[in-house]
Design a protein that fits this description.
The protein is an all-beta fold. The protein is built from no helices and five strands. Pfam families: Cys_rich_KTR.
Length: 61
């Protein structure tokens, strides 16, 4: 059986509802935390979580 882990929120460190396996690769995944109700864009590869820093949208004039 493959090893799996729950993903923890990068903001409040609580457990989310998303589970990944060792061979899971997620790119620009919108991770939602039910506790702090925040959404973060993350990249996940081999259980390593990297928060994606995207520039804010510019207002249209």
């Amino acid at each position: 059986m493959e090893k799996s882990k729950w993903i923890y929120c990068p903001i409040c460190s609580s457990k989310t509802r998303t589970k990944v396996y060792a061979n899971t690769i997620l790119i620009s995944f919108p991770l939602y935390c039910p506790k702090c109700k925040q959404e973060s864009l993350v990249n996940i590869k081999k259980f390593k979580i990297i928060i994606v820093k995207e520039p804010d949208a510019k207002p249209i004039n």
